[in-house]
Amino acid sequence: MTKSKPPKLIILDRDGVINYDSKNYIRHVDEWHPIEGALETIASWSKSGHRIAIATNQSAVARNYISLEMLNAIHKKMLISVKKLGGEIELIKFCPHLPSAKCLCRKPQPGLIFSILATLNVSASNACFIGDKRSDAEAAENAKVTFYHVDANIPFSLSNLDI
After folding, report:
1. Residues 17, 19, 25, 29: is their CA dihedral positive or negative?
2. What is the C-alpha to C-alpha distance for residues 135 and 91, in angstroms, rounded to an integer?
3. Which CATH number is 106's domain given?
4. Is 16 inside a domain boundary?
5. pTM of the predicted model, to two decimals?
6. How far is CA 58 from CA 4, 110, 160, in A?
7. Contact 38, 46 (CB under 8 A)
8. Cβ atoms 161, 42 nearer than 8 A
9. 4 in a domain, yes or no?
10. Residues taking part in catalysis
11. Which of 8, 9, 41, 163 is the most exposed place for a label (fewest CB within 10 A)?
């Protein structure tokens, strides 16, 4: 009897990949708008057995543009939206620090990815990371996970990936 391969863990950046990004930050739940096709693709991956997690830099918290309560409300809206489509996002990890903080969790550092891998008990070889920025690619490289690039804010860009 052959052992079946465990489902791949797909880790995604949030802003510009799942929802439209803004140079002024996403500060309120009403400003969070999913990119066309993104939630449907995530739900489809989840329903096909892939595990889904989010790794996102959210310096708007440290800048006092958004409270942790509002950030959690935005994430709850995203989780519910994917669940309504039959999918599941298992985990969201975020870095609330400023770029100048030199923390280990802010991408391009691999801390968020390492934390997700440890929490979900998945090896780097069985995970991938999808992002739109150079810092995402560098975080994936630093964590030794496969990286997939998507152009920011482009409808249906996730559905074009071969994962």
Report:
1. negative
2. 20
3. 3.40.50.1000
4. yes
5. 0.94
6. 37, 15, 26
7. no
8. no
9. no
10. 13, 15
11. 163
